[in-house]
């Protein structure tokens, strides 16, 4: 292999892997210099000229002219009689520059040189990929599904780089086939065994935020600011928005005419319900908006404990809690308050407070029931076993046992 073939092959490699010319030039020079230093035990008398565009490497050995018969190291010195054959005007003590031919390396060294170059280029490519994606954390990537496994999906970007979408970062109802286009946000970039690992996510709040930037020009331009986002992926999300321009309705702009803007986002998130609300620093008003679509009767806030007692009419309790308790959980995370729901209205004299059953029902079970707004025996019995299984983390057998205890009170 000659110098032209060697450098051309890596010039092509460079174009495929997007390594800049200057870096490629330094790598070539370093690898050649290391090989020459090993051959001559020094590289102080060597000049290497790399021309990436031409695909050419030239190596020059600088030798000192000494008297005939006094040459101790032919690699660094040349006899006077040999020097004047090159140039008659040379004198003793001057330097002669000779080009080192690739043929003098030997085939084994050429193959070793090529292997070293491949290794260095691969290391550079890994470092470059790591740096590029480290700067893209939080950005949306569109890729192609290359392989679907049980615990993760392998995605290829436009340049053929491998990205990973773990099962834990997929929306529960996500289903992809090989060859499909997929959108996700870059969540994390790690180096594992000297190999960059790029993790994608479709469940991160940043994914929803980037989708709003794509669909809502006012968000992209900074006229509308997304203050907070909380999600139960695939189920429900709450987005608090604010505009510093009084002429812009942030909620209306995000939703769009007849929901035209929000519809694309909902579709991308597998029909995830998205509540867009106006942000405010007024805690009472913010909690009221966060619990939408339920209508709040009154709120008592304990600032030090970051707790709020929310009172609602009986017909509004289930709306505030939401399917599976998602609405109240997200409202609490969005506002930063622990929300306790209470029914407003006349007290049923025949009803019994759940705390009265503390000797028969474990405290943690009572707390779980209170968390979804059930603070009395009748309020639990009204909901029914099936709905309680959906709204709480309690097992069906546990709830049936609770029902037996509560029903016995009224028999």
UniProtKB/TrEMBL annotation:
Metal-binding as UniProt keyword: no
CDD domains reported for this sequence: KH-II_NusA_rpt1 (cd02134), KH-II_NusA_rpt2 (cd22529), S1_NusA (cd04455)
Localization per record: Cytoplasm
The entry's keywords: Cytoplasm, RNA-binding, Transcription, Transcription antitermination, Transcription regulation, Transcription termination
Domain S1 motif: 138-203
A GO cellular-component term linked to this record: cytosol
Keyword flag RNA-binding: yes
Single annotated GO MF: RNA binding
GO biological process: DNA-templated transcription termination; transcription antitermination
Membership in a protein family: Belongs to the NusA family.
Assembly and binders: Monomer. Binds directly to the core enzyme of the DNA-dependent RNA polymerase and to nascent RNA.
NCBIfam families cross-referenced by the UniProt entry: NusA
Role summary: Participates in both transcription termination and antitermination.
Protein name: Transcription termination/antitermination protein NusA
Organism from which the protein derives: Taishania pollutisoli
Top-level taxonomy: Bacteria, Pseudomonadati, Bacteroidota, Flavobacteriia, Flavobacteriales
């Amino acid at each position: 292999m000659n110098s032209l073939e060697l450098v051309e092959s890596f010039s092509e490699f460079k174009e495929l892997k997007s390594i800049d010319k200057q870096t490629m030039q330094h790598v070539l020079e370093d690898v050649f210099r290391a090989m020459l230093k090993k051959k001559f035990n020094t590289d102080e008398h060597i000049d290497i000229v790399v021309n990436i565009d031409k695909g050419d490497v030239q190596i020059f050995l600088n030798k000192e002219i000494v008297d005939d018969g006094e040459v101790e190291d032919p690699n660094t010195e040349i006899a006077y009689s040999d020097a004047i054959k090159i140039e008659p005007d040379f004198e003793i003590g001057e330097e002669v520059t000779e080009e080192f031919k690739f043929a003098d390396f030997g085939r084994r060294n050429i193959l070793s040189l090529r292997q070293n170059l491949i290794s260095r280029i691969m290391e550079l490519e890994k470092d470059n990929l790591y740096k590029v994606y480290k700067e893209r954390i939080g950005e949306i990537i569109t890729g192609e599904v290359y392989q679907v496994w049980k615990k993760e999906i392998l995605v290829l970007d436009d340049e053929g780089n491998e990205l990973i979408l773990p099962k834990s970062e997929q929306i529960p109802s996500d289903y992809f086939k090989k060859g499909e286009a997929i959108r996700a946000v870059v969540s994390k970039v790690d180096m594992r065994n000297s190999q960059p690992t790029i993790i994608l996510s479709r469940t991160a709040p940043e994914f929803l935020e980037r989708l709003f930037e794509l669909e809502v020009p006012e968000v992209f331009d900074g006229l509308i600011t997304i203050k907070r986002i909380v999600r139960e992926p695939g189920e429900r999300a709450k987005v608090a928005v604010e505009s510093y321009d009084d002429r812009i309705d942030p909620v209306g702009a995000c939703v769009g005419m007849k929901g035209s803007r929000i519809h694309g986002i909902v579709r991308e998130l597998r029909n995830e319900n998205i509540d867009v609300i106006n942000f405010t620093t007024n805690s009472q008003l913010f909690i009221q908006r966060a619990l939408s679509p339920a209508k709040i009767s009154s709120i008592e806030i304990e600032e030090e404990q970051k707790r709020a007692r929310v009172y609602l009419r009986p017909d509004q309790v289930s709306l505030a809690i939401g399917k599976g308790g998602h609405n109240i959980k997200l409202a609490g995370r969005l506002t930063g308050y622990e929300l306790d729901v209470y029914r407003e209205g006349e007290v049923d004299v025949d009803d019994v407070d759940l705390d009265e059953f503390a000797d028969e029902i474990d405290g943690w079970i009572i707390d779980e029931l209170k968390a979804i707004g059930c603070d009395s025996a009748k309020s639990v019995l009204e909901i029914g076993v099936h709905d309680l299984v959906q709204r709480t983390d309690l097992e069906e057998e546990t709830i049936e046992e609770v029902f037996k205890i509560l029903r016995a009170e009224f028999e």
